[in-house]
């Protein structure tokens, strides 16, 4: 008769242990609650930090735009002062230009140089397709 009593005690203890494990797995432990609170605070602080960073970036961009506008205004004022001192630079009567013949000559020379450069590049491309031994300049 001693053995069935031991089996009953073992069965009751194992049932208790089983219930304890199920309860601990299904209920929230304090560690899980602490972690959830930590995770929520971490997310909130990241949102605050990103909002602060965005505000700083907007402030820096605003300052940069203001500085650029200020520099442009200063340069404009300097140009106006120089024009007042030295007169209008756009006036053709103050600065004699190149004679039309000289200007035409320079334009034709420039076009000739460009055409020669294009011809040499085309020749180089044609020779790149063939063997290097055939190239002669």
UniProtKB/TrEMBL annotation:
Ranges for region Disordered: 63-102
Domain of life of the source: Eukaryota
Feature: compositional bias, Basic and acidic residues: 63-74
Biased composition (Acidic residues): 75-95
Family matches, as PANTHER family: DUF4408 DOMAIN-CONTAINING PROTEIN (PTHR35762:SF5), TRANSMEMBRANE PROTEIN (PTHR35762)
Protein name: Uncharacterized protein
Organism from which the protein derives: Vitis rotundifolia (Muscadine grape)
């Amino acid at each position: 008769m001693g053995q069935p009593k031991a089996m009953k005690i073992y069965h009751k203890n194992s049932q208790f242990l089983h219930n304890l494990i199920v309860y601990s797995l299904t209920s929230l432990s304090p560690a899980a609650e602490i972690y959830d609170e930590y995770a929520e605070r971490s997310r909130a602080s990241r949102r605050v930090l990103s909002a602060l960073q965005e505000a700083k970036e907007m402030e820096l961009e605003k300052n940069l735009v203001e500085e650029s506008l200020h520099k442009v205004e200063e340069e404009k004022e300097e140009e106006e002062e120089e024009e007042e001192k030295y007169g209008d630079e756009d006036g053709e009567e103050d600065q004699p230009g190149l004679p039309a013949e000289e200007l035409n000559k320079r334009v034709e020379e420039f076009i000739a140089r460009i055409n020669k450069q294009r011809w040499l590049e085309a020749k180089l491309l044609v020779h790149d397709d063939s063997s290097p031994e055939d190239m002669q300049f």
